[in-house]
Amino acid sequence: MSFFKDFKEDLSQAVNELMPEAEAPVAPVAEPVAEPVAESTIGQDELASMLNNIDSIMAAEPAQEQAPVVEPVAPAPAPAPAPTPVVEPVFAPEPVIPEEQKIPMAPIFGEPDVVAEQPINTVKNLKTMETGIIIEGMEVSGDIKSEGSLDIKGTVKGNITIEGKLDITGTVEGNSVAEEVFADGAKIVGEIKCNGSVKIGQSSVVRGNVTATAAVLAGAVKGDIDVQGPVILDSTAIIMGNIKSKSIQINNGAVIEGLCSQCYADVSPMSFFGEEKPAKATKASK
């Protein structure tokens, strides 16, 4: 808006300065003058019309306020990141244990505690620790009784009663009673009774009845076998007598001359056929 106003004032002043010179008479020039280049001249009427156009333009345009000059503002520096707080781990307080409930802990490294040996004062330990030996070539005539174990490599003529294990590789003529009996290459004439198992190895010969809770037979036995548990007959076994057991396993090659009865089995075969045990026959009166 101020630009057009200043332009109008300058234009009006220029017109006023030119007007007197135009009215003054010009003296004729005698000397020949070169033809000037034709220039476009602006008349008074044209200047007046231009001024009127400027006034109309100024009236038509709405007043515009000059926009304030906004000075550039430098961007504020970014704030520095706040330091991460260090969180210390929180542990639950240790429970207070009464003195009477505390268990003493032995150190991991250090001298181990010395355990005093306990005295041997039981029959079971005596059985395992004390073992009598009858060496090969020795002959004993008479009965033998012991609370330990016995290893017979020679000859015994008499009954044997021990509370431990009886190991026979020699000759025995008499009845034998023990916790367990093991015979390998032995010659036995007499009954064998034990509370545990009986093992008669190959090349052993037994002439007498055998009573036990379990039996493994690989030699020759002439007599009845009464076992309340399992009986296993190896391929080299020869049995001349009846066998009573809970179960029996006969390997191929074993020879049996007698009856086999599983009378100690949990299942009675007679119950499947609806039969009852026959009643004993009463003696006829004379």
The chain-level structural class is alpha/beta
Q: Helical proportion?
A: 10-25%
- Tell the overall outline: rod-shaped
> How many β strands by DSSP?
24
Question: What is the H/E string?
Answer: HHHEEEEEEEEEEEEEEEEEEEEEEEE
The number of helical elements comes to 3
Radius of gyration in whole Å, from Cα?
A: 69 Å
Strand order of the largest sheet: 1-4-7-10-13-16-19-22
Q: What fraction strand?
A: 25-35%
| Average pLDDT reading | 75
Main sheet properties: 8 strands, parallel
Distance between the termini: 169 Å
Low-pLDDT stretches are 21-27, 115-123, 279-286
Structural account:
- With 286 residues, the protein is an alpha/beta fold.
- 16% of the residues lie in helices and 27% in strands.
- The protein contains three helices and 24 strands.
- It has helices at 2-23, 44-60, 123-129, and strands at 131-134, 139-141, 144-146, 149-152, 155-157, 160-162, 165-168, 171-173, 176-178, 180-183, 187-189, 192-194, 197-200, 205-207, 210-212, 214-217, 220-222, 225-227, 230-233, 238-240, 243-244, 247-250, 255-257, 260-261.
- An eight-stranded parallel sheet has the order 1-4-7-10-13-16-19-22.
- The chain is rod-shaped.
- The relative contact order is 0.05.
- Residues 21-27, 115-123 and 279-286 have low confidence and may be disordered.
